[in-house]
Specification:
The structure holds 2 protein chains of 2 kinds. Chain A is built from 13 helices and 14 strands. By secondary structure, chain A is an alpha/beta fold. In chain A, the strands form 2 sheets. An 8-stranded mixed beta sheet of chain A has the order 1-4-5-3-2-6-7-8, sandwiched between helices. A 6-stranded mixed beta sheet of chain A has the order 10-9-11-12-13-14, covered by helices on one side. The chains are: A alpha/beta, B alpha/beta.
């Protein structure tokens, strides 16, 4: 990827503020309320799709900054509309860039698409929300407890699970199902991303009072959806599975004293922009995520 | 039974327990335009419970598929859903119909049986989307059939009553008494869709979650308040209802009084339904009678005459289909209100609403007092505009603040500038329709955004004397304003001669 953003002005780092204020888009949106800064950072090859998601976010009053990692200690920033791009920044300087480019007094979210790096704790201290999104998250997940001392930490895989978790929880709003909780013996989770499956399993593990009675089966599939099916089984059965359309899920319950029921529910938008939008609406510490990550590490 | 441990840390907001929504008047306009699309959106957003069903009740007897077809047509027409998706299909399958005469007790027995067959263990929410003339019948029949009795916490029974709740103080009191014979107050949800709007809810956040506004929210800093609800439409297909209602009953008694109460209320001690509603009630009680002891009335009424709106010639009110050619029903009303409270003494509240005005907009404009000394008078040729805080309720929900700034240049010249916050752009995502918010709140058992019986009665107590005075005048014509203009000149007499003017929006 040669450029993160095809158009825009090359400006010195210190002139970014002025360039943003003078830009045509800034003039058009004069008076718009700003809600925060979003940084997307990581290897260049993982930032192309991030740039598209960020571009869509500009309409909602955020300043967006794209930072691709490289060897340059002082890359020339490119400014286009409300987006600032720093190509090839040496990661040692990542925290300096974040500190300089964040909007003061408003929340800052960092969407980290790179791997485990030494200065993650420093980064966490600078921002209000750190959204992890690494290809192999095991190393960064091992540091979640440490990072959570400084800021609110979560993972985009966790964001993708929001609706799946909600649907599983909805089952247990029904008292008969809640009463049947000890009867479930197996949790089978299927999907293409084993880390997502582990995270879901970790969530359940962190909640149930007698985890030893539950056997976990994580089945990696060749599909494209990170998670495709959840089956809580035993004497009774609860299932959530992706509908053929992929935009909905079908939930079904086979519980004693309850007539078998099935319904189709929207999964909501699952594109990166929608997921990031969800993260922008959350300010609180994500304790459920922290517990799920910790529990997932205990899974064999 | 312990609470649901899986709810801990969930990001989606709470969902109601198992619910059956029973819509009386399921073939009507409100159901098709608002309720069914709202249910679809709630389902799409995963806000409906796992066990959720809809039972439609109407005079028309039809199979369940009849209601399902109405649902599909409603989504096509009012939710922009060209092709039914899986969410709609899933919701459709859980729709049932019971038809019959609302006065016939066997209808309610059949409804009861149907509810038991569908889901005997769920709560039931009865939505009265029917003409007000049938409220009493349906409420009494529900009570007689035992459908208002709550067998357990899970099998709750609630009723949503649409506006208008009564036509004057006496009828509102009578209706409240009938409702309370069968439903406790905490089972009754009197809906006012304005209260479901984000900006209206945000008004409380704006006032009570920010340290900078509440200290100036009083007579020392505020000059006056203007609340406007302007419509471009005429009476449309509602002539039958509107002829008996008029702008005062249709808009002021409910929507505008709620907005007034939210602006004027004292801070509640907590954000709980009763605390908020108590403080709103206090604000209403501070409003002084609109007709004083000498018969002076702080209200102006008018009717639209023919004119031009949005580039089209439109007929006068009396020439509208279904309207009595000699009608004296007001399509515009303006009021001046005085609140005798420590906070608001001496601050006038001006309210107005009308049909066939130039613009569709609802806003609350709070004008601040001017600085005590105009030190820029000599150097800046234009007079300094007063600071203004505008709460836009519709169509563009948000908040704007107007203040003076120096125009860049070598001279000291001042100009007013606006700082805008817009819901549509600030947070991303779509803003839920008011009916979505309110339906969900009723299912969750949260009455904060619904009118309590005393508020409804208090509001009628204020405007009923105005109606009585107008009725006693026995005039054959009332003042008119040209359609497409900002109301009658008569409205200006509510403002002091050297004081503020009605805002041109």
């Amino acid at each position: 990827m040669s450029e993160l953003l095809p158009t825009g002005a090359d400006v010195a780092f210190t002139e970014i503020e002025g360039t943003l204020l003078r830009g045509a888009d800034a003039r058009q949106s004069a008076g718009r309320a700003l809600t925060g800064t979003v940084f997307a950072a990581g290897p260049a090859e993982r930032l192309a799709e991030a740039a598209e998601a960020i571009e869509e976010l500009k309409g909602i009053g955020v300043r967006a900054v794209l930072i691709s990692q490289g060897d340059n200690p002082a890359p020339v920033p490119r400014v286009s509309n409300h987006v600032v791009a720093l190509n090839g920044l040496r990661l040692e300087y990542l925290n300096n860039a974040v500190a300089a480019l964040r909007l003061s007094s408003l929340p800052t979210l960092v969407w980290w698409r790179g791997n485990n790096i030494p200065n993650l704790p420093g980064l966490a201290q600078l921002v209000d929300r750190l959204v992890l999104d690494t290809e192999d998250p095991r190393d960064v997940w091992a540091r979640v407890e440490e990072l959570a001392q400084y800021t609110s930490v979560t993972d985009l895989r966790w964001t993708r699970l929001t609706r799946w978790r909600a649907l599983m929880a909805h089952f247990f709003d029904i008292p008969e199902i809640r009463a049947a909780l000890p009867d479930f013996r197996t949790l089978r989770i299927e999907g293409s991303d084993v880390h997502t499956l582990r995270l879901f399993a970790g969530w359940i593990l962190s909640i149930v009072s007698s985890p030893d009675r539950l056997t976990f089966e994580l089945i990696e599939t060749k599909g494209t959806a990170p998670i495709e099916r959840v089956l809580l089984g035993g004497a009774q059965e609860l299932e959530i599975r992706l509908a053929p359309s992929r935009s909905c899920v079908v939930t079904s319950a086979q519980i004693r004293n309850l007539s078998a029921a099935s319904r189709t529910v929207s999964l909501g938008a699952q594109d990166l922009c929608a997921l990031l939008g969800e993260e922008l609406r959350i300010r609180a510490r994500d304790l459920a995520f922290e517990r799920a990550v910790a529990a997932s590490r205990t899974l064999s | 039974m312990p609470s649901n441990p899986l709810q801990d840390g969930l990001r989606l907001e709470p969902t109601p327990g198992p619910t059956t929504l029973v819509i009386f008047g399921v073939t009507g306009d409100l159901t098709r335009r608002k309720l069914l699309p709202a249910l679809y959106n709630l389902s799409k957003g995963q806000r409906l419970p796992a066990r959720f069903s809809v039972v439609g009740v109407a005079r028309e007897d039809m199979p369940d598929d009849g209601l399902r077809s109405i649902f599909s047509a409603s989504l096509r027409e009012f939710a922009g859903l060209k092709q039914e998706d899986e969410v709609a299909r899933s919701l459709r399958e859980r729709m049932y119909h019971v038809g019959g005469d609302f006065r016939d007790s066997s209808l309610y027995e059949r409804l009861k049986t149907r509810l038991t067959e569908i889901d005997s263990g769920s709560g039931a929410l009865f939505y009265l989307a029917i003409p007000p003339s049938v409220y009493q019948t349906v409420i009494e029949q529900l009570g007689a059939a035992g459908l208002s009795s709550q067998a357990s916490d899970r099998q709750w029974r609630r009723v949503i009553v649409e506006k208008p709740f009564g036509t004057d103080l006496a009828s509102a009191r009578e209706l409240n008494q009938i409702v309370h014979r069968h439903f406790a107050e905490d089972q009754v949800y009197r809906i006012d869709h304005y209260l479901g709007k984000e900006t209206v809810q945000n008004l409380m956040v704006f006032r009570f979650a920010n340290g900078m506004f509440e200290p100036i929210w009083n007579r020392r800093y505020i000059d006056h308040v203007q609340i406007t609800a302007a419509e471009t439409v005429g009476v449309e297909r509602r002539a039958n209802y509107y002829e008996g209602a008029g702008a005062l009953r249709d808009m002021v008694q409910n929507h505008l009084m709620q907005l007034l109460a939210l602006v004027a209320m004292e801070p509640p001690i907590a954000f709980t339904a009763e605390s908020v509603r108590d403080r709103k009630m206090d604000a209403l009680l501070a409003v002084q009678p609109l007709v004083d002891g000498n018969g002076n009335c702080n209200a102006v009424r008018a009717q639209y005459a023919k004119g031009w709106v949005a580039g089209a010639e439109v007929p006068g009110y009396r020439d509208e289909p279904g309207v009595n050619p000699e009608s004296t029903t007001e399509t515009y009303v303006a009021l001046r209100m005085r609140l005798d409270s420590w906070r608001w003494a001496g601050v006038p509240f001006y309210l107005r609403t009308g049909k066939r005005l130039p613009k569709r907009t609802t806003e609350i404009a709070i004008q601040m007092r001017r600085p005590p000394l105009e030190i820029f008078k000599r150097v800046s040729p234009t007079p300094v505009a007063a600071n203004l805080l505008i709460v836009n309720v519709q169509p563009d929900e948000g908040i704007s603040i107007r203040f003076e700034a120096k125009i860049p240049g070598t001279r000291m010249q001042l100009a007013p500038v606006m700082m805008n916050f817009r819901y549509g752009s600030a947070f991303g995502g779509s803003v839920p329709e008011a009916y979505e918010t309110l339906l969900l709140d009723a299912m969750l058992g949260d009455p904060t955004l619904f009118a309590r019986h005393d508020f409804v009665e208090g509001s009628w107590a204020l405007i009923t004397p105005v109606h009585e005075k107008w009725a006693a005048e026995k005039v054959k014509v009332i003042p008119t304003y040209e359609a497409g203009e900002w109301g009658p000149h008569d409205a200006d007499r509510l403002m002091p001669p050297d004081g503020p003017r009605w805002r041109t929006l």
